[in-house]
Specification:
Layout (H helix, E strand, L loop, with lengths): L5 E5 L2 E9 L13 E7 L1 H11 L4 E8 L2 H7 L8 E5 L5 E7 L4 E5 L9 H7 L9 E5 L11 H10 L3 E5 L9 H10 L5 E5 H8 L4 H8 L8 E5 L5 E5 L2 E5 L12 H14 L4 H16 L14
Parallel strand pairs: 1-4, 1-8, 2-6, 4-5, 8-9, 9-10, 10-11
Antiparallel strand pairs: 2-3, 6-7, 11-12, 12-13
Helix pairs in contact: 1-8, 6-7, 8-9
Length: 306
């Protein structure tokens, strides 16, 4: 089966990832960290870059600011299907501090992402042939102006013939009743819902993953898949009441930032190539593992797993 085109729609920003630290330093002091990486970030951009490395037909539809950071990001998306606008604003930046326990803390600035609304995405997707494609809408919670119309954008993508996937990320205000109500409505428009384990429990207001799966089952469209990314425990798929699980191999990694985004690329790459669900989960896990094993991150092709 030939590979279907994947369009990744959503956020791009600049990332500075550095660490590791054991404890926060005292105010007014200075510490030196052994490693850092300055790179394109944002969940949608991370997925698009991984798809480039998989050499999958892909278009990235987004925006950057009109500063040096924006120009640096835009240079990486010059393919025939890419549409990255430059807005007269500062590019959003995130600083990721990695902790010795393998967790991380982000400090992010407002910037151009605050202006990405439905009108912008309607403009940037104009004249793009979405028919028979797979469209991922990623990073919704980093784009506050889009949130009221996220459902309308999903509906538009479906009407234009795309199979849809969403990965909204983690809401800055937490899983409030309003956020949960809004995100629950998105489930009716998505063919693939890509969440990590904490996001799955948060949206379902559940204490355990099993409870969350029970909550999701009647809310997914018929034939739609909930994909739960579980880090070192692998991933699972819930579809029409059936759960399929796939384990992960042990990895010793320094920088897990973007692991879920790389998983999305591997999973969607397999889906768009006609792979069955277990193979798609395994591909997502493999791509995520290989990407986060690199520091700094590479842009070299990701060959098929041996």
């Amino acid at each position: 089966m030939s590979e279907r085109t994947i369009f990744v729609i959503g956020n791009a920003n600049l990332d500075l990832v550095t660490g590791c630290i054991d404890d926060w330093p005292e105010p007014g002091t200075e510490i030196f960290l052994p490693q850092s990486d300055f790179r394109t970030g944002g969940s949608a951009a991370n997925t698009a870059l991984a798809l480039q490395r998989l050499q999958h037909p892909c278009g990235f539809l987004s925006a950057v600011g009109s500063d040096s950071a924006g120009r640096m990001i835009a240079q990486q998306f010059s393919g025939p299907l890419d549409r990255v606008a430059a807005l007269p604003l500062r590019t959003s930046i995130s600083v990721g501090i990695l902790h010795a326990c393998a967790e991380r803390t982000f400090f992010s600035t407002n910037g151009h992402l605050d202006r990405l609304d439905l009108a912008f995405f309607q403009t940037v997707t104009e004249n793009v042939d979405m028919s028979a494609s797979l469209a991922l809408l990623s990073g919704a919670f980093t784009m506050p102006a889009l949130l009221p119309d996220h459902d309308a954008l999903l509906r538009s993508l479906r009407e234009r013939g795309a199979e849809t996937a969403i990965d909204p990320g983690w809401p800055g205000e937490g899983w409030t009743p309003e956020v949960r109500s809004r995100a629950t409505a998105w489930l009716e428009r998505a063919d693939h819902v890509l969440l990590n384990e904490k996001e799955t429990a948060g949206l379902a207001a559940a204490d355990t993953l099993d409870e969350a799966l029970i909550w999701f089952a009647p809310r997914l469209r018929k034939g739609a898949r909930l994909i739960v990314k579980r880090g070192p425990e692998g991933a699972l798929c819930l579809c029409d009441g059936t759960v399929v699980e796939c384990g992960a191999r042990d990895l010793s990694v320094f920088d897990t930032v973007g692991a879920g985004d790389a998983f999305n690329a591997g999973y969607l790459h397999a889906v768009a190539s006609g792979a069955p669900i277990r193979q798609a989960l395994a591909r997502g896990i493999d791509v995520a593992g290989r990407v986060i094993s690199e520091f700094p991150r590479s842009s070299s092709p990701l060959e098929p797993a041996a």
